[in-house]
Amino acid sequence: MKFGTRHVVGVGVGKLQKQMRWIIVLGGLIFIGVLVYSSWQANRNQFEVCMAFKGASHCATAMGATSSQAIRSAQEIDCQLLSRGRDENMVCLDTQPSSVRAVK
Asked: Which of 29, 63, 73, 95 could form a disulfide with 43 if both were Cys (CB 3.0 to 4.6 A apart)?
């Protein structure tokens, strides 16, 4: 009587290991494909937004999946640099940008 070896009816251990390897490789390729696709989708739109606040101005460029996300992101960058504190930042974010330009 031998211990330590298992056999699945109709499938050898070597064949089962090969199948598992292929499943793991296929799963990894699908995962990488999803990552590449989602990264590409997240950076489809790029905008340059200029903000004027309290006598100062700043222009920032940002990317996003939609134009509104890219514009808002660039606006947040500008306001972070132009404002002093959370309250001013919120006021700045409520201000319309002085210019918006699509970069790509």
From this structure: 63
**pTM assigned to the model:** 0.61
pLDDT per residue as tens digits for the range 38-88? 777 666 789 999 999 999 999 999 988 889 999 999 999 999 999 999 999
Question: CA separation (Å) from 71 to 6, 17, 56, 94, 98?
Answer: 61, 51, 19, 13, 12
59, 49 Cβ separation under 8 angstroms? yes
What is the C-alpha to C-alpha distance for residues 12 and 18, in angstroms, rounded to an integer?
A: 10
How far is 67 from 73, CA to CA, in rounded Å?
A: 10
Using DSSP bridges, classify how beta strands 56-64 and 99-102 pair: parallel, antiparallel or unpaired: unpaired
